[in-house]
């Protein structure tokens, strides 16, 4: 039998239950994975409350990033075989697939070979975090090697924020990490942040100005949006780029027109699943960069906590609390 986590209504983690089902068979172009681990991502929170633009049909299998061993390949799948160890990258349609269960079927275009030097927990914390950060900073934000840029990373203790710190530092940038309090300051600096400012301090923009000698930042990488976008625009330097990749505030985002006009700001947004993970050519460039730095030890996956499959509700509640530092992992068969 296959134990599967399913969302029964759009009411958050409490609406998840574990179901016993038959092991599915892969259709043409799909693979069946015997799951080892799964990683949680904030997009699942939006889906669980019905806030994501595309809603899955209930009851829906949830979870979109993981790792495991190929059990069976469908017709037309090339390059993979039974027994291959793979990572599942979250570029599949979220309303058709889910990976939190003993066995999961996913498109063959949503798997890559697991890097041999990382463990199963790290294998489920790699592609959404580092892929989103690479797309946001390098492709959308204009991060360059050793050009004395200052990067501001908000909600920096998240499973995307921590990779973003490392990618910015690998490119020689100065990194300002933001958090709601200073409780996570040591952890953020351990991951490479040069400065940590608390956005609950009304003078945080003055701190950014002081750190940058009055110039402001060059790139902001932000999952909060809402009114915070205007604050970022006020703290930005001339010609800066603000990259949004989430909607944690769940508030309307007003266009900060006057700072944009006066500072020639660029505001852009990314959806990593479509813009990078779903783009084979761009993903290959990012994949080589990420694997190189993972293997040489420059990039280190930060695991916040691990939960058993039966405790998936507690795992999502941990994510919802906002207290995590790094990736929350479901241990399925490790």
3D architecture notes:
By secondary structure, the chain is α/β, with parallel strands linked by helices. The protein has two domains: 2-126 and 301-331, Alpha-Beta Complex (Quinone Oxidoreductase, Chain A, domain 1), CATH 3.90.180; 130-273, Quinone Oxidoreductase, Chain A, domain 1. Helices cover 28% and strands 27% of the residues. It contains eleven helices and 16 strands. The strands form three sheets. Strands 3, 5, 6, 7, 8, 15 and 16 form a seven-stranded mixed β-sheet that branches. Strands 11-10-9-12-13-14 form a six-stranded parallel β-sheet, sandwiched between helices. Helix 3 (127-140) packs across helix 4, helix 3 (127-140) crosses helix 10 and helix 6 (204-211) runs parallel beside helix 7 (228-235). The protein is globular, with a radius of gyration of 20 Å. The model has no long low-confidence stretch (mean pLDDT 94).
List the SSEs and their pairings.
Elements: E1 2-7, E2 16-21, E3 30-39, H1 43-48, E4 60-61, E5 65-73, E6 85-88, E7 103-107, E8 111-113, H2 120-123, H3 127-140, E9 150-153, H4 161-170, E10 174-179, H5 185-190, E11 195-198, H6 204-211, E12 217-222, H7 228-235, E13 236-244, H8 257-263, E14 266-269, H9 272-275, H10 280-295, E15 303-308, H11 312-321, E16 327-331
Parallel strand pairs: 9-10, 9-12, 10-11, 12-13, 13-14, 15-16
Antiparallel strand pairs: 1-2, 1-4, 3-5, 3-7, 3-16, 5-6, 6-8
Helix pairs in contact: 3-4, 3-10, 6-7
């Amino acid at each position: 039998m296959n134990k599967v986590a399913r969302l029964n209504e759009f009411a958050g983690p409490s609406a998840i239950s574990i179901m016993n089902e038959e092991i599915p068979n892969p259709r043409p172009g799909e693979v069946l994975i015997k799951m080892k681990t799964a990683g949680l991502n904030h997009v699942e929170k939006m889906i669980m409350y019905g806030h994501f633009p595309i809603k899955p049909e209930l009851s829906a299998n949830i979870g979109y990033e993981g790792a495991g061993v190929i059990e069976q390949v469908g017709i037309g799948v090339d390059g993979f075989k039974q027994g291959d160890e793979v990572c599942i990258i979250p570029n599949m349609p979220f309303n058709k697939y889910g990976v939190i269960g003993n066995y999961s079927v996913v498109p063959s275009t949503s798997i890559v070979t697991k890097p041999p030097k990382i463990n199963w927990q790290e294998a489920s914390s790699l592609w959404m975090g580092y892929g989103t950060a690479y797309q946001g900073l390098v492709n959308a934000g204009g991060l360059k090697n050793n050009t004395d840029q200052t990067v501001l990373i908000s909600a920096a203790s998240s499973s995307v924020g921590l990779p973003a710190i490392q990618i910015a530092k690998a490119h020689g940038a100065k990194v300002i990490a933001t958090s709601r309090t200073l409780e996570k300051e040591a952890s953020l600096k351990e991951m490479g942040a040069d400065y940590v400012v608390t956005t609950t301090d009304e003078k945080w923009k003055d701190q950014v100005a002081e750190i940058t000698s009055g110039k402001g930042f060059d790139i902001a990488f932000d999952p909060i949006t809402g009114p915070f976008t205007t604050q970022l625009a006020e703290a930005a330097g001339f010609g800066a780029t603000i990259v949004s990749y989430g909607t944690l505030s769940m508030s309307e985002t007003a266009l900060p027109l006057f700072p944009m006009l006066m500072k020639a700001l660029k505001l852009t947004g990314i959806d990593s699943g479509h813009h990078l993970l779903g783009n084979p050519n761009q993903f290959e460039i990012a994949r080589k960069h990420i694997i190189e730095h993972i293997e040489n030890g420059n990039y280190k996956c930060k695991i916040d906590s691990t939960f058993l499959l039966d405790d998936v509700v507690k795992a999502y509640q941990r994510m919802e609390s906002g207290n995590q530092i790094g990736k929350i992992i479901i241990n399925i068969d490790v």
